[in-house]
Amino acid sequence: MAKPSALSKGQELTGNGANLGAMLAHWRQNHPDAYDAFVAEALRLFPEYSAFSLESHPDGSVSPAFTLLGDVGVVNAANLSQGTLHVLGVIALTLSPEPPSVICIEEIDRGVHPRMLREVRDAFYRLAYPESFGLTRAPVQVIATTHSPYLLDLFREHPEEVILTQKRGREAHFERLSDRTDLTELLEGGSLGDLWFSGILGGVPEERT
Q1: Residue 32 has what pLDDT?
Q2: Can you give the pLDDT at residue 21?
Q3: Residues 175-191: pLDDT tens digits?
Q4: Based on the structure, what is the number of domains in the chain?
Q5: Which residues, including other chains, have CB under 8 Å from residue 154's CB and lie 6 or more apart?
Q6: Is residue 28 included in any domain, yes or no?
Q7: 84-120 in b/e burial notation, b at 16+ Cβ within 10 A?
Q8: Closest CA to 76 of 23, 24, 14, 1
Q9: pLDDT band at 205 (very low <50, low <70, confident <90, very high)
């Protein structure tokens, strides 16, 4: 995601997000409302910056960049953290004028500061529950994995959204958290993240006996 991308590859965000700059350039020209919304959200989430821009390179490619507060310098994509780039990709997905019907993300919290995880969750809620945000488009199914107890905590009130995966040999077993009859009792004794981390809920590596 930190590398410049050719403008010709900007119609839709690729699976690895490598064409983020080109896609935003496409939005700027063809979907200015989406581009403006992206910039506003990026600056809201990263208040250390005063402006967002797309850097043009001699070969015609583009890449994202931020201007630090006080105009004390530009931070280009190559110097942005993995977490920042990951969040920019999330914003782009959730503000897309034509989002895909299904989005799958491995380690949705990758590189993201724990204090920003609620923003990531809410961004994907915008995709999954558009009517709650005043949008009329069809909902998007979001499938994401995580090993973060902090992110899991954010679903305490929505256990139906959580599926625990337990690996047994070559097989994977799945259990919807809301199907547990003892969940209410368990939550009285601790946070959802702590319960998962302790192994009570399963979905953790098996210990050798």
Answers
A1: 96
A2: 94
A3: 999 999 999 999 888 89
A4: 1
A5: 117, 118, 121
A6: yes
A7: bbbbbbbbbbbbbeebeeebebeebbeebeeebbebb
A8: 1
A9: confident
Q: Is 197 within the bounds of a domain?
A: no
In a domain, 120, yes or no: yes
- State whether residue 190 is helix, strand or coil: coil
Q: How far is CA 162 from CA 66, 71, 132, 165, in A?
A: 35, 43, 20, 10
Q: How far apart are CA 124 and CA 90, in angstroms?
A: 8
Is residue 79 within 8 A of residue 113, CB to CB? The reply is: no
User: Cβ contacts of residue 126 below 8 Å, gap of 6+?
Assistant: 94, 133, 135
Residue with tokens 């890449």, as numbered in its chain = 63
Q: Which domain holds residue 23?
A: 5-146
C-alpha distances (whole Å) from 3 to each of 55, 69, 76, 140, 158 are 11, 24, 10, 28, 37
Q: What CATH number does the domain containing 71 carry?
A: 3.40.50
Cβ proximity of 146 and 164 under 8 Å: no
Residue 94 has pLDDT above 80, yes or no: yes
Per-residue pLDDT at 88 exceeds 90: yes
Using pLDDT thresholds of 50, 70 and 90, give the confidence band for residue 208.
Answer: low
Instruction: Calculate mean pLDDT across residues 94-106.
Output: 91
